[in-house]
Amino acid sequence: MTGFLFELSFLLAAPVWLLMILAPGWGPTARIAGSPLTVVPVLLVYLALAVPVFPELWTAVSSPDLGTFRDLTALPGGAGAVWAQVIAWDLLIGQWMYREGRRLELSALVMGPLLILTVLLSPFGLLVFLVLRAARSRRALAVP
Fold this sequence. Notes:
This protein is mainly alpha-helical.
C-alpha cells in the first residue's frame, strides 16, 4: 500500500503540471493553476502515509537532526510522507511560477522548460525563475 501511495502522490499532481507546461494559454489552466486546492489530494496521501509514522515524524521535526531524519526516511511510510510533502510544495511553487510567468508575460517556450526543471529539481527551477523574474522586473522598471 505504501508503494501505491508513494506513486499516487505524483500521479495526482501530474495533470496540473501537464496543463501548465503543455497548455499554458488554455483558459481552464489559469483557473486550475490559480487554486491552492490542487494540492489537497496530495496532502490526503501525505496524511495517509504520515499518520502511521507520526511518532517518528514528530521526533524528526521537533528535534531535527540528521539521525532522526534518517530514521524517519528509513521507514517506507516516512519516506513516502516526505515524498508526498515535497510533491505538494513543489506543485504550489510551480503554480506560483506559472502565475508569475503569465503576469510577466514570459514566453511559454521559456516557462515550459523551466517548469519541467522545477517538477524534477524544484530548488534549481525556482532559483532560475527568481533570477529571471528579477531581471524581467528590473527591465520593466527601466522602461519609461
